[in-house]
Write a structure and sequence with these properties.
By secondary structure, the protein is an alpha+beta fold. It has helices at residues 24-31, 35-38, 126-138; strands at 4-6, 43-49, 53-60, 65-71, 73-81, 83-88, 91-96, 100-103, 107-113, 117-125. A hairpin with a 2-residue loop joins strand 6 (83-88) and strand 7 (91-96).
Length: 141
């Protein structure tokens, strides 16, 4: 089970600032000191949530398995620390620190950590992408 907490939150669900800056290495270290992590569970925090995309920072213990997801959105994995093994159809792909992999929507996958791992998971909604493309195609200047 993937447990997450929202890092940024307000009542309206939107922010009136043009940017946000995050200290990812410090966040990873702090996550490794939280109760969830100490119990041996993975720890995840939502860094960005909008109608278009969601970005989550996740920290896994060595050997943690997350089984069988069917993504209706495109998914990007970017490994910040450690190694992550993704299983897609009949293939397995290992991503190391600094590597990134994007999967198109409607692809079933699972993953596990080869060692203690921290990664960013970005989900981009297919429906929102299509709507934005249709709207921009219909816009005249």
């Amino acid at each position: 089970m993937l447990k997450t907490t929202a890092l940024l939150n307000n009542n309206s669900g939107s922010f009136n600032i043009p940017f946000s800056a995050l200290d990812i290495p410090t966040m990873i270290e702090n996550m490794k000191h939280e109760h969830t992590w100490k119990k041996g569970e993975l720890n995840s925090v939502i860094l960005l949530k909008s109608p278009v995309k969601k970005v989550m920072l996740t920290v896994l213990h060595e050997g943690t398995e997350v089984l069988s997801f069917q993504a209706n959105d495109s998914v990007t994995f970017q490994v910040l620390e450690g190694k992550l093994m993704l299983h897609i159809k009949e293939e397995s792909i290992t991503l190391g620190k600094g590597e990134l992999l994007t999967l198109d929507e409607k692809i079933q996958y699972s993953f596990d950590s080869v060692e203690e791992t921290a990664f960013l998971l970005t989900l981009v909604s297919e429906n929102i992408e299509n709507r934005m493309q249709q709207e921009s195609a219909g816009t005249q200047y």
